[in-house]
Amino acid sequence: MTAPSVCYVRAMPTTLYGSPYSTFTWSARLALAEKGVAYDLESARLRTPEYGALHPYQRMPVLVHDGFVVYESLAVMQYVDEAFDGPALRPATPAARARNQQWASAFVDYVAPHAVRGVLIPRLVLAARGMPVDDASVHRAAAKARENLVPFERALAESAFLSGETPSFADWLLAPCIASGRQMTGADRFADDLPNVEAWLGRISARPSFAVTVPG
Ligand SMILES: N[C@@H](CCC(=O)N[C@@H](CS)C(=O)NCC(=O)O)C(=O)O
Q1: Radius of gyration, CA atoms only, the chain
Q2: Ligand 1 neighbours (beta carbon < 6 A)
Q3: Do 107 and 91 form a contact (C-beta atoms < 8 A)?
Q4: Domain 14-83 sits in which CATH superfamily?
Q5: What is the value of pTM for the model shown?
Q6: What residue spans define the domains of the chain?
Q7: What is the C-alpha to C-alpha distance for residues 54 and 62, in angstroms, rounded to an integer?
Q8: What is the CATH number of domain 94-207?
Q9: 12 pLDDT band (50/70/90 cuts)?
Q10: For residue 60, which atom of ligand 1 is closest to its CA?
Q11: Could you tell me the distance, in angstroms and rounded to a whole number, from the CA of residue 4 to the centre of ligand 1?
Q12: One fold for 14-83 and 94-207
């Protein structure tokens, strides 16, 4: 007996390409969850021509919505906020929006290169693939990441989240990096002794969006 042929009709026109273990994918997923958007999470097939057609720099995540393709996690989150119904993810005032953009940019330029590319990727991705990891360079990256988190620590003494009393894009960018950093040990622990960051992560991780996106 031959199996019946099945025609799969995609019910959801929204697809996020990435990996649940990628911090930037996690950020986009936090925004999607906060907004209440249903989507498919598809594995990003990095370094294939098909994926290159979606993301010419071969990184994740990429969001595809009704045929519209957008990459760079901050752009993805901003698009999600504006293209879908649901609670506003963006702060209300010009000053708070600028502050949020400031912290998002500071994270991308001053923290992520050290924390994500310098520590988390070598420790969590390269090591799992059996690739060599230079411990001294990871320790240096962790120290630099920690140094560059100090302004975030100071800011979080002033408000519950980075641009006020509700979380926004900068918080969704930073949270997966800090949460993943807690898996590190010894000199790789770049977010230790930052009590305001620790308390802020407690507030973020108490939200339902965190529970449904935290890598299993
Ligand atoms: N600026 C990018 C960074 C994305 C990024 O670096 N993603 C990592 C995963 S967390 C990645 O795709 N790494 C794969 C690689 O470097 O080959 C964004 O905000 O989306």
Answers
A1: 18
A2: 22-24, 46, 59-60, 72-73, 116
A3: no
A4: Glutaredoxin (3.40.30.10)
A5: 0.93
A6: 14-83, 94-207
A7: 7
A8: 1.20.1050.10
A9: low
A10: 12
A11: 40
A12: no
